[in-house]
Design brief:
266 residues; alpha/beta; six-stranded mixed sheet; three-stranded mixed sheet; 12 helices; 48% helix; globular; ClpP/crotonase-like_dom_sf; Enoyl-CoA_hydra/iso; Crotonase/enoyl-CoA hydratase family protein; catalytic activity; Enoyl-CoA_hydra_C
Length: 266
């Protein structure tokens, strides 16, 4: 049986591929959810990883929930209201928590349709690059549901409340060019250029010192929900730690000597 999540590392960059094209990479499969959570823990524990790319196999990034499973009341959707609540908490909500707590920069390389939980999963990443074939839809109401994976918290932080409300209340798909204009993605490229472009961006990120990258990401995350004075205190503590690292000394020396730095993670 093929792995439902492919984990590939090239140097300091990991590429994660949702590998269930037969379901358009539906994210309500328990095995896939478990694999994503495990992969996030593996990345966090591996100090050689400095950046990760998330993409989908086949024509879709992710279709979100599996409609056949919804119809059959299978898996996450089985049982009474309490059972379904527990299914969400043990499934897609674990994915949301794990991806949000990923310590390294995450790039979503959105290769095709990204609907429902798929759309929200792209919002869990730090940077989104879209293929011209990509579409985004917060289409929960269209199937008689609401976002169960944090989309109501995530999407307004990417596109603003008015556009998030429009996407949520209409359930209309948004094409790649509109996503670019709305700030949902950073850039749009032709399908054949999507992964090469994501890898080039990941390489530009991964050339930087690993511990400082992780601290910089944590500051951005904390800055979404806390006061400026709190961020300043946290930044001061992080800065104190950074000044003691070998990588800081190497970075300063490299700039003064007009050469490329060689970071060790120490």
């Amino acid at each position: 049986m093929a792995e439902k999540l492919l984990y590939e590392q090239d140097g300091h960059v990991v590429t994660l591929t949702f590998n269930m094209p037969e379901t358009r990479n539906a994210l309500t499969d328990h095995d896939l959810c478990d694999a994503i959570v495990e992969a996030m823990g593996r990345i966090n524990a591996d100090q050689t990883v400095r950046c990760a790319i998330v993409t989908g196999a086949g024509k879709a990034f992710s279709s979100g929930g599996n409609l056949k499973h919804m119809k059959e009341k299978h898996g996450t959707f089985a049982g009474d209201a309490v059972s379904v609540k527990d299914g969400y908490r043990k499934g897609i909500q674990r994915v949301a928590r794990a991806m949000w707590e990923c310590e390294v920069p995450l790039i979503a390389a959105v290769n095709g349709p990204s609907y429902g939980a798929g759309c929200d999963t792209t919002c869990l990443c730090d940077i989104r690059i879209a293929s011209t074939a990509a579409t985004f839809a917060e289409n929960f109401v269209n199937v008689g549901l609401i976002s169960g994976d944090g989309g109501a918290w995530l999407l307004p932080r990417q596109v603003g409340l008015s556009r998030a409300a429009e996407m949520t209340f209409t359930a209309d798909p948004v094409d790649a060019e509109t996503a670019l204009a709305w700030g949902l993605v950073s850039r749009v490229v032709e399908p054949g250029e999507l992964l090469p472009e994501a890898r080039r961006l990941a390489a530009r990120i991964a050339r930087n010192p690993p511990r400082q990258l992780r601290m910089a990401k944590r500051l951005l995350r904390e800055g979404l929900n806390t006061r400026l004075d709190t961020i300043l205190e946290l930044a001061a503590a992080y800065q104190g730690a950074c000044h003691q690292t070998e990588d800081h000394g190497e970075a300063v020396d490299a700039l003064l000597e007009k050469r490329q730095p060689r970071f060790s993670g120490r």
